[in-house]
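debug: dumping io for the single-chain case to check the tokenizer round-trip. Nothing else runs in this session.
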Amino acid sequence: MKVYGIKNCNSVKKGLNFLNEKNFEYAFLDIKKLDEKTLKSWLEKKSFSELINTAGTTAKKLGLNKEKLASSDEKTLFKLILENPSLIKRPVIEKDNQLFIGKEYELISK
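debug: decoded output
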């Protein structure tokens, strides 16, 4: 299992606590080092609107709200995420070819 996030992010800390309490083994990866290949694989499983946290600080700085997200094309959003990986809801967890975003970690089972 791979867990992508930012160490000092409260949402990530809660997710890691959950995984540790359930005795999951995982590799932690810094989401700020996100590459094109990984983002493409995530977008095969989830939509931009599921991945992007429009309520977050980064989205607010970029003026990216739900309306702008809905009206932006995929190429623009893809580039925006690669340049600003902090836009992504966290943590992002890859397990058994599934993708869990944010509080979805509560749905993970052994």
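debug: round-trip ok. Strands lie at 2-5, 27-30, 92-95, 98-101.
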